[in-house]
Design a protein that fits this description.
single chain, 388 residues, Growth Hormone, Chain: A, 13 helices, globular
């Protein structure tokens, strides 16, 4: 179990690292390949867009063919697509390679986590899934830090060739890990998801929280760096703020996994949603860059707690219904992809049309709406923890 957990953590770490490693190298790619600003933006955005499209099919495939088998295919695809990324010389080739990484990401966060969930005792699943989220958050932190210097010293294509080799090693490792069988009594199709969400409050809560936190965090993570840049912060100073917040986010992921069984995912999510709503209100009133920086760091743990409970909630809900994990986890990925596309776009549009404060107020309303919706589910903390 420990070897498998380390493997899955390594996979999601590498996935998140590669998602963000392109950021500091994007100007060089744009210059070398003659990309327009729009094309560069498409290359970045297509990753989450592909996760949105591929999330449910990846989860469905994990349920049908086995989480282990699909995860191996996914990490192999990551090796191939990342290697292709390093050797791309046209916009189309770069786009296809990036889409391959996106499909692999959808598999990692659905089939990979389904494999881990099936192999982990029920009482240890929240901690295991919280650690997986922490591994992904760490990868997101490390990606730009590693990608930039490697590209600067070895060339912009070298990092992706190196990471492709790492993915290949993980593919071989995965072959030596045994599969695990869940306790599902029935198969679940995509059309069954609305019925399950309506019937099972844990699954409904997981999907709702994932969508809301992706929208709110996507807006905040777009607006805060832009605001700091407008106020004269250098790229290095902004990176320090983001880095401090990221470390707190990783720690919060781990803490949420540890306390899940004690307090219940619904209660943790509600508290975190209320905290993020207060944080959005504070950001709406803030103007000075140091104040915005401190508030961003303070709010980040509330966001991390929401992310950390989504996967345990969905896994617990699937356990209650005795259905496979894959398609439920795939739906979580779809909600994340949708939210993370809506949040940055809506936040930027509202900020440009009205003000940054208006965007934060809207994010606060979204968080409060999620808090009210979870309250309407009327679940006691103990009910969230009782096995089926």
């Amino acid at each position: 179990m420990r070897r498998l957990a380390l493997l899955i953590y390594s996979i999601v770490f590498l996935d998140a690292l590669l998602m963000f490693a392109i950021v500091p190298l994007l100007p060089s790619y744009a210059r070398d390949l003659g990309l327009s600003t729009t094309q560069a933006g498409i290359v970045v955005a297509v990753y989450s867009g592909t996760v949105l499209v591929a999330g449910l099919p990846a989860g469905r495939a994990a349920d049908r063919f086995g989480a282990r088998q699909v995860t191996i295919i996914g990490i192999a695809l990551l090796a191939v697509s990342t290697g292709a990324y390093g050797f791309s010389h046209t916009f189309l080739a770069l786009l296809v390679a990036r889409m391959g990484q996106g499909v692999s990401s959808a598999i990692s966060w659905s089939a990979g986590l389904a494999w881990l969930t099936e192999a982990t005792p029920v009482e240890r699943r929240p901690a295991a899934l919280g650690a997986a989220m922490a591994a992904g958050s760490t990868g997101a932190l490390v990606g730009p830090v590693v990608g930039g210097p490697l590209g600067e010293h070895l060339g912009i294509r070298a990092p992706f060739v190196i990471f492709a080799g790492v993915a290949a090693v993980l593919t071989v490792w995965a072959f030596f890990e045994p599969g695990a069988r869940g306790h599902a009594d029935v198969t679940v199709g995509v059309r069954d998801l609305p019925r399950l969400a309506a019937r099972n409050q844990l699954i409904a809560a997981a999907l709702l929280v994932t969508l809301i936190v992706a929208v709110v965090s996507g807006a905040m993570e777009t607006l805060v760096p832009l605001h700091l840049g407008d106020k004269g912060y250098s790229a290095g100073q902004i990176s320090i703020v983001l880095g401090i917040a990221g470390v707190l986010g990783v720690l919060s992921n781990l803490i949420a996994g540890r306390i899940y069984n004690r307090f219940g995912g619904i209660r943790i999510a509600r508290t975190a949603l209320l905290g993020s709503a207060v944080g959005m209100l504070a950001l709406a009133a803030a103007q000075a860059a140091p104040v915005v920086s401190v508030l961003y760091i303070i709010v980040t743990p509330t966001i991390a707690f929401q992310y950390a409970v989504c996967f345990p909630l969905s896994a617990e809900g699937a356990q209650h219904e005795r259905v496979p994990q894959g398609v439920i986890l795939g739906a979580i990925n779809v909600c994340w992809g949708l939210g993370f596309m809506i949040g940055p776009a809506a936040g930027a549009v509202v900020a440009q049309a009205f003000s940054e404060s208006a965007s934060y107020i809207l994010a606060m309303v979204v968080s409060l709406g999620g808090f009210a919706a979870l309250r309407s589910l009327a679940l006691a903390p103990r009910e969230c923890q009782e096995p089926a």
